[in-house]
Design brief:
Blueprint lengths: L9 H14 L6 E5 L7 E3 L5 E3 L5 E6 L2 H11 L3 H9 L10 H18 L12 H4 L2
Antiparallel strand pairs: 1-4, 2-3
Helix pairs in contact: 2-4
Length: 134
């Protein structure tokens, strides 16, 4: 879709498609995950931990890690690794080994959604650049 509407070039699409094939895991964890991991849906508690406060953004049958992928793109910044580590030590199924697949899947979905919803300020093909070096 992103190639067809001109968000990414045919050459970039070819490379990303090849990389996606390499990143695709044999199995993934699916369950409850945050579907709207934007900053306003989280607060820091007294111990500095990040807590989700929007119950409506909890979705069933989601690719686990999708919320973390959205948070990583939108607002985690330097907290990314600590956030992911915090999830691993809290009995969350370990999606870490295939998190790059989750990130790429999320980016493709988000870029398509943003394009279709005419939220052009969020359409940014350079978000895929980090995968092109793999």
């Amino acid at each position: 879709f992103l190639r067809e509407v001109g968000v990414i070039s045919p050459g970039v699409h070819r490379v990303l498609d090849e990389i996606a094939g390499k990143l695709t895991p044999r199995e993934v964890w699916v369950g409850y995950d945050c579907t709207d991991a934007i900053l306003k849906n989280f607060v820091r508690d007294g111990a500095g931990r990040i807590r989700g406060v929007d119950v409506e953004s909890l979705g069933a049958d989601q690719l686990l890690g999708s919320g973390a992928a959205k948070a990583a793109v939108r607002w985690l910044g330097p907290l990314r690794d600590a956030f992911l580590h915090g999830l691993r030590v809290r009995e969350v199924p370990d999606f870490g080994p295939y998190f790059p697949f989750v990130e790429m899947s999320f980016l493709a979905f988000w870029q398509k959604s943003s394009f279709l919803e005419k939220k052009r300020k969020f359409v940014d093909p350079s978000l895929f650049d980090r995968f092109l070096g793999q």
